[in-house]
Each structure stands twice: as structure tokens, then as C-alpha cells.
Amino acid sequence: MDSLDEQDEINLIFDSAIKLYHHSAINNERYMKGNNNIVCSCTIGYGEHFIRITPVATKKKELIDAEIEWILFLSEKGVSVSSPIRSKGGKYVEEIAYKQDIFSVVCFVKAAGRKVSFHDEEEDWNPQLIKNWGMITGEIHQLTRQYCSPLGSNSRPSRIVESNQLVNSINVLHEQDPYVVKQYYTVKNQIEELSKINHYGLIHNDNHHGNFRVDNEWKITLFDFDECANFWFANELTIPLYDAIMDKCRLEVSRNNPIRNKYIKEFYTIFMEGYSQKYTVDDGLLKQIPIFLKIRDITRYIFMKDMFRNNEGLQQHLTELRKTIENQLPFSEII
Questions:
Q1: Which residue from 131, 76, 109 is spatially nearest to 271, judged by alpha carbons?
Q2: Most buried residue, 71, 133, 144, 160, by most Cβ within 10 Å?
């Protein structure tokens, strides 16, 4: 099968997958498609779960095994994560066949709580939430120093992984904007030359606010470890900051905007307060943060310039973002 886009075929695949679990499992037929996966909501017993289907052709089962081992380790250490459950056959990772294809199947307990939106919900810009976000990030960074994967240290990626989408967008911009593409590879090479002795290890690597839920007491439950990788901790400090500010400030990227700068200072101060309660921060870690913010500016521009080239409403945003890249402006003077 060339893709998982056909709804009838998706239904057939999930009908097979759901039979791997409890006899009372019900397919809720709410599908979400990601880069490599399709996720379906289901009810097992009295609890809501999500089944994730991944073509083995796009991601080897060994990578998923390593992801699940990592999540189980964090859960056992008390980190609030969306945990996998075993199938009727006692496995965390199952495989099913459909036509000529093989798919890996994992079922996760649905994370408790609700989504967070800094754009639409004023109350979500909450110091306790931001502090807890920093704390769970620091907790994971501290635990990864203790972690020794039973599947080997190379069981998850340990470099900048360029998705097919990014590669395609870079190819498009090679002709349209070679300067930005050159900047991307320059910064990428600088990152890959950073020391891996300290502040480096297996991390979530995609810890933006779309990948957790929060309860009424602002407790965070983290999910979607699909991108977990051996990588620099500084990268995982920039993801929450960058995405939260983009959401809160409605894509404002002007470095001179006082409201944007106010929110950056608030978020960064509170987040790092929580983070430093769980993980020791030093100058070596802090000095790495700006370069990861820089590559996020560049990759964002590359994606959006390609994908939204005909969207008139985003052209001003892209123009401003292009200026920051060309003038090599830092994300913020306070960082």
C-alpha cells in the first residue's frame, strides 16, 4: 500500500489492530494522521486509549521497541507520561500485515486532562503550568543520565533527522532562496560539532504544548515520544519557549516588539526556575540555547515558505522571519 490515506483501508487495518487488545475494545473511529503514523482513539474497558499504527517500511520495529523501553523507564521513575499497555499476547509492540505491508502497533493510555492553547486561552499562560513544564523537562534530563537502554545506545537516532517534508522544502528553496538553505546547513553543522560529553542524552525531542495534557492542578502528562532521540538538552529547552511564544504572540517575530519581549522574559524565567529544580544548569548548557533557537527560525521559514507560499495572510510573517535570518538576529537579547 502506497499510503494510509484511504479511509476504508484505515478502517480495515484498525479493525485488525484493535483485536490484539481486550475483547471489549471499541474503535471510536477518530483518526489523526502524523508524519509516519495514524492514531485511532479507542475504548478498552472503561478507559480511553490510543492505538498507533506505523508502517515498518517507514520506521523499523527496533526503533519503536527502544521508544517503548524509554517510556516505561520514565513511568517507573514516576514521570507523568502516557504509558503503553500490553496486548492480549503480552506484547507492547505488535505487528500486523495488510496486503503487502507490515505495520507496528502500540496502544497507549490516553493522557489525562485537556489541551493547552496560549493563543485562545488566557488562563493557560499560567506560572504554575510553565514551571511544571520546566520541571518535567528537567526531570527527564536528570533521569536520562541514569538510563542505559537494554537495546543499546544506538537504538534511537543521534543526529538531526531531516523528515521527508523538510528535505522536499529545502529542495524547493534551493532555487528560490539559496541564502537561507546555506544558513540551514551552516547552523546544522555547527550543532553537530557541539560536545556530547555533558547535557546530552535520550530526550523526548518534541516537547511542545501540543504533546501534553494538563489537569485542573496544572499537572502535565507528556505523550508522543515518537521523535525521542539522543540529542542535546538545549534543544529541548528551546522547543517549549519557541512554540509557546509563537502561539501567544500570534506569529509575531519582530525583535523590537515589547509585548513579545515581555512574554519571552516571563516564560523563560519561570520555565528555567522549574527546570533547575530538577536538573543542574551551568554556563555550558545556557550557551547552547541560542543556536537551537536559530535553527528553529530557519527550519520554520523553510517549511512555511514552501507550504504556505500562496497564503497571503502569512506573507508578512515570512518577510519578518526572513529578515531575522538574513540579519542573524538572536531570538531574544535576554537569552
A1: 131
A2: 133
Same domain, yes or no: 283 and 160: yes
166 vs 172: CA distance, rounded Å:
10
Q: Tell me, what CATH number does 167's domain have?
A: 3.90.1200.10
- One DSSP character per residue, 244-289 reads HHHHHTTT---TT-HHHHHHHHHHHHHHHHHHHTTS---HHHHTTH
Residue 23 has what pLDDT?
66
Strands 101-109 and 94-98: antiparallel
Residues 271 and 203 in one domain: yes
pTM of the model: 0.93
State the Cα torsion 311-31-119-269 to the nearest 10°: -120
Bridge partners of 49? 42, 109
Instruction: With beta carbons less than 8 A apart as the criterion, state whether 228 and 204 touch.
Output: yes
The helix/strand/coil state of 108 is strand
